[in-house]
Structure formats: C-alpha cells, structure tokens
Amino acid sequence: MKFEDVIGQEALKEHMQSAIRLGKISHAYIINGEAGFFKKLLAEAFAQALLCSKLNPDYDKNQVSFPGLEAYEPKLPEVIEPCCECISCKKASHHNHPDIIYISHEKPNLISKEEIRNQLVNTVDIIPYESKRKIYILEDGQFMNEAGQNTLLKTIEEPPDFVTIIILTTNKEKLLPTVLSRCVCLDVKPVEKSVIKSYLMDRGIVDYQADMAINFAEGNPGKALMIASDIEFQNRRKLIINTIRDFDSFNSKRIADMAKKIEEDKDNIDSYFDLIMVFLRDVLVYKTTGDEKRVHFREEISVIRDISRHKLSQ
C-alpha cells in the first residue's frame, strides 16, 4: 500500500511523509472522519512506510566514519513512498507483518478495557520482532468505553520509543479529552469531485451514475463508490422518480403507495429523503436558472423540465 493509492487527503499524506522525512514520528495518531474515506488504507500506507527497509536502512552513523568524510546519513527520496518490494513491505501488504498489530474487538459496537489491555498494553513493551518500530492500528476507536480509554491513556502517556499507535475513528468527540490531547489528530477532508469521478470511472462506473453518486457522497469517495454500485439505491431512486414523474396525478393514493414502500425499507429512510430533497432542489434550480449543468439528476432532465414548467403555487 502506497500513499498514492489513497484517494485525496493530500494534506494528511504530506504530514505523514514529512514526519518520516524529518524523523519526527509521534507516539500516537488519531485519524478522524466518517466511514468511506479509506482511513485504514492511509494508516496502512503510513505503517508500511515506517517499516520499509529502503526508507529505514539499518545503519549506525556513529560507526560509519572516515577521515575527512562526514558520518553516513541515508538520503531519503523527495517523495516518501514505501518501496513495496522489500520483505517488510511485502509482509505489510499481506497483513502478516509481526510488527504491525491490528486491535480487534468481539462486540460490533464496543471495545472493552480487557481487549485494550490484552492486545496492546500487555504487549507494548515487547521490542519489535523484525523492525526498528512497532505499530498498533486500532479501528473503530469511537467504540472504546471509558475504562478502555483510561487503560489506553496510561500507555500513550509514556509509550516505549519504538511504538506508534494509530487510532481510527468516525467521531473523535467520543474520545476522552485526555486521550485527544496526547495524540496528533488528523481530520480527513472532502475529496474533490473530479478526483472521485476519476476513481469511479476507473472502476467501470458509467458517467451519469458517477455524477449521481458524487452529488450524494459529499466528497466521500467510499460512499460514492457504494452508491454507484448499490442496486438497492438505484431502485430507491427509480421509486422516487416514478412517483414524482406524473406531477399532475400526484394524489394521496400515490403518496400512500410510496410511503408504504418506504416503510418496508425503513432502515434506509434517510436515503429516500436525500433523494427527494435533491430531486426537488434540481427542479427549483432548473426553474430558476434553466442551466442543465447545475442539475444532479441529469438523466431525468426531461422530467425536471416538465415539472419546472408548473407554477410554484400549484
């Protein structure tokens, strides 16, 4: 996994690459943001780079010295990327590197004190097996209970020099202030639409589906891919469009039929409301501007055009 494989997040990648280049690696990081921003891939690229043999050659600059010459200093490339060729990189890519430890949890919405203690605290003082550094990756950090966070706190206050802990969370506000204050917090940012579109089209998503997904994803590439690939989302979209299509006959029975279908799929009710709001937004935008390029439901432009001809008071 390379940094360049992570969609967007250039500022976060540069922060990590600079830390490696300058040799200023923090003992603990928090990568914060909603699901779909590939936070785990970013953490894995960072971990792989930290352990890459070509970026971290074995040397002792105090022993490599000759008369008239400065002590040996390894030259790092301008762009920091793991080589993906050394044994360390290959093990990291296959998720079997002994010095990259993933913290797991049994219950889907809880990381307990015992899990933090057994998988991290009790092993943190063990020196790395193959590398100069040992890295813990803790997903779903928002699910740590208070006892678990307090157990972790004792470690991140005074960790061994060779340890880096990376916490991934969808909501850093769920973490204790004492934990937040002892970590470098990196917040993911929305990704540009053009970048997401290239990402989707590289994966075989057709143009209009890519545009639709991007408009709903709000800069989240993972969410955009899920929407573009989700047949059920497309079915929900068709239900909304077909219901609104015959604007003049949009009577109580039609509304009741739509409501019944939504009730049967109530776990996705937010998705229905999003679709309705975006469609009505398109009608208003087109009625006001007449600009098709500003419409999200471009493949339904004929329907939007017909509805926009009605007076808003009707």
Shape summary: elongated
How big is the Rg?
Answer: 25 Å
Helix content: 40-55%
- CATH architect. name of the largest domain: 3-Layer(aba) Sandwich
CATH superfamily of the largest domain: P-loop containing nucleotide triphosphate hydrolases
- Strand order, main sheet: write it out: 2-3-4-1-5
Structural class per helix/strand content?
Answer: alpha/beta
The CATH topology assignment of the largest domain is Rossmann fold
The number of distinct β-strands equals 5
Q: Give the integer mean of the pLDDT values.
A: 86
C-alpha end-to-end distance: 56 Å
Q: Which blocks of ≥5 consecutive residues have pLDDT under 50? A: 59-73
Number of helices: 13
Question: What does this entry look like structurally?
Answer:
- The protein has 314 residues and is α/β, with parallel strands linked by helices.
- The protein has helices spanning 10-22, 39-51, 87-93, 113-121, 146-157, 177-180, 193-201, 207-217, 221-229, 231-245, 252-264, 269-289, 301-308, and strands at residues 28-32, 100-103, 134-138, 163-169, 184-187.
- A five-stranded parallel beta sheet has the order 2-3-4-1-5, with helices on both faces.
- The longest helix is centred in the C-terminal third of the chain and has 21 residues, at 269-289.
- The radius of gyration is 25 Å and the shape is elongated.
